[in-house]
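Kindly inspect this today.
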Amino acid sequence: MTRPEDRPERISSTLAAALDAEHVEVVDDSALHVGHLGAHGGAGHFRLVVVSRRFEGLSRVAAQRLVYQALGDLMTSDIHAVEMRTMTPDQWATNGPQSRQER
């Protein structure tokens, strides 16, 4: 298991490499979930924005499956829950700033 303070960077670099992502944002929301069952095992809660050409032509569900696939073992060791927004570069150019304002 990755040290908690290193998880956002590891998630970001993993997604950037696996998906040729042009932009990755990782927000660690673990502190908001202290006391939840998943937090007891040490795994974290994260919010992601991932921008990749690999999502072009895919449904939102198919794009999210690619993200889960890219995260691989991190999903069983370091991540308890993930909320994500996946976009193509064109969608990011049009809607990118919105992703930062949603929460």
The two ends are 28 Å apart (CA to CA). The helical segments are 7-19, 37-40, 60-71, 74-77, 89-101.
